[in-house]
Design a protein that fits this description.
Layout: E1 2-8, E2 13-19, E3 24-28, H1 35-47, E4 51-56, H2 68-75, E5 79-82, H3 86-90, H4 92-95, E6 111-113, E7 118-121, E8 124-130, E9 139-143, E10 148-152, E11 155-156, E12 159-160, H5 170-181, E13 189-192, E14 198-199, H6 200-206
Parallel strand pairs: 3-4, 4-5, 5-6, 10-13
Antiparallel strand pairs: 1-2, 2-3, 7-8, 8-9, 9-10, 11-12, 13-14
Pfam families: Lactamase_B (PF00753)
Cofactor: Zn(2+)
Protein name: MBL fold metallo-hydrolase
């Protein structure tokens, strides 16, 4: 599986394209927030002859969902989230103007992701892991074969997701990291929702929030 990262919107959010040698592609957390960013994403997909087959959100805070409508409409794919984050998603139109975002277009889910189930595309299989704390319905996507983890805002390089937003809980987040992520092999590469990649082993050793 190849992982292509774009950093979009004023929150510097990481949008990921997951694709393999079949050219089937999954879009995770599209944060594209204006015409230029939309076209940047669309051009890469077209230039690499990718076929978008799924649209996934790790969680539904505003910076991770701004491009949901664009991707859903452009590629005729339904949005998939965890059901416990529906309330998080539905709250966005209320608070978007506070962040100076007046053009937000809501895209509601077509189906729900469940822990223990798998996301399959092309020759690739991702495991869905439920990891709440930053958001009530936060999930991460683990590729066991490649030892890669699309982690959203659960775990960052020597940091963790904030828990002061509605639905956040610090102890729940720490428990998710310890019981869901730190049980993965140390060599797993973590692709976070903001900032650079890290590894499970590095975070076990150096993350100050998890000493």
């Amino acid at each position: 599986m190849e992982i292509t990262r774009f950093t979009f919107n004023p929150f510097a959010e990481n949008t990921y394209l997951l694709h393999d040698d079949t050219n089937e592609c999954v879009v995770v957390d599209p944060g594209c927030s204006d015409k230029h960013e939309n076209e940047q994403l669309k051009k890469y997909i077209a230039d690499n002859n990718l076929k978008v087959v799924r649209l996934l959100n790790t969680h539904c805070h505003i910076d991770h969902v701004l491009g949901n409508k664009f991707v859903a409409n452009t590629y005729n794919v339904g949005l998939e989230i965890h059901e416990k984050d529906l309330e998080t998603l539905r709250a966005i139109p209320v608070y978007a103007p506070v962040y100076g975002i007046s053009n937000y277009q809501e895209q509601l889910p077509a189906s729900y992701l469940k822990e223990g189930e798998q996301v399959k595309f092309g020759n690739t299989t991702l495991e869905i892991i439920f990891a709440p704390g930053h958001a009530p319905g936060h999930v991460v996507f683990y590729n066991k074969t490649d030892k890669t983890l699309i982690a959203g805002d659960v775990l960052f390089q020597e940091s963790i997701g904030r828990t002061d937003l509605p639905g956040g809980d610090h102890e729940t987040l720490l428990n998710s990291i310890r019981t869901k992520l730190f049980v993965l092999p140390d060599e797993v590469t973590v692709y976070p929702g903001h900032g650079p990649e890290t590894t499970i082993g590095h975070e076990k050793k150096y993350n100050p929030f998890l000493k």
